[in-house]
Amino acid sequence: MQVSDGKAAEPTPMRRSRADQARRVADLLRHQVHAGAFDDGVPSEQQLATEFEASRNTVREALALLKDEGLIDRLPKVGTRVATRKYDHGLDALLGLQETFKGHGTVRNEVRAAMHVTAPAAVARRLQLAPGERVVYLERLRYLADLPLSLDLTYLAPDIGTEILGHDLAHTDIFVLLEQISGHSLGHAELALEAVPADPHTASTLDIPGGAPLLMLERLTHLDDGRPVDLEDIRLRGDRITMRGNLTRSTPEWKVR
């Protein structure tokens, strides 16, 4: 905005409600919780109020938001402490769950289904198969130690999938088996990530309330020769997983000209 002397006008300060300010403070605190900044305890309301230049009532509302999310506990005479930490799931590399959480504990799979099925038309198209062709279908409930993390529904190309059925699916990542059996490395994957509420069956399976937020990951994985071999719908517990990645911006058009 310009004024008569050619100088830009000073922006008018925006009046923000306490709820808006509490949300902003909660967002900043949430990142610190995930980064492990408060493993020895969350600072007092007064300390946080000073840090964020906010009122204690605003800080109190922000902490209440994080408590409702299950991230912190607030106990009389004890103070505020982190209740649980989320696990980081990277989006920069094509890794199986065991590879992703290496060092955090043992990943095991409860195999709920492992069988040949006629490929639904949408699956056949994605895997570049003929209509009506048979594929291998897997359904696995995946745990990190004793915590259920995800429910994975997987469709595999029939030749590789048939051999995978003969392996230890309870303790081995599908990605490892795909490479061993095909003799190819995995090449790339197309993925889509969205938030969905947990349906009653998934909620019961993952031990979360009905309607709780899930991260829904659809991933189509190709071998290094370009062949699509693995189509997955993965429902991840939103209260236990954080998706992280590094993004690089390409050279903008105005610099190319």
List keywords for this structure.
257 residues, alpha+beta, six-stranded antiparallel sheet, two-stranded antiparallel sheet
Structure, briefly:
With 257 residues, the chain is an alpha+beta fold.
Description of the molecule:
With 257 residues, this protein is α+β, with helices and mostly antiparallel strands. Helix content is 29%, strand content 32%. The chain has helices spanning 18-34, 45-52, 56-68, 97-100, 121-126, 158-164, 174-182, 200-206, 253-256; strands at residues 72-75, 79-82, 87-90, 107-118, 134-144, 147-156, 186-197, 213-223, 228-237, 241-244. It has a six-stranded antiparallel beta sheet. α1 (18-34) crosses α3 (56-68) and α2 (45-52) crosses α3. It is globular, with a radius of gyration of 24 Å.
Estimated radius of gyration: 24 Å
Strand order of the largest sheet: 4-5-6-9-8-7
- What's the assembly state of these chains? single chain
- Could you tell me the mean pLDDT? 89
Compute the number of helices: 9
List strands and helices in order, with pairings:
Blueprint: H1 18-34, H2 45-52, H3 56-68, E1 72-75, E2 79-82, E3 87-90, H4 97-100, E4 107-118, H5 121-126, E5 134-144, E6 147-156, H6 158-164, H7 174-182, E7 186-197, H8 200-206, E8 213-223, E9 228-237, E10 241-244, H9 253-256
Parallel strand pairs: 3-10
Antiparallel strand pairs: 1-2, 4-5, 5-6, 6-9, 7-8, 8-9
Helix pairs in contact: 1-3, 2-3, 6-7
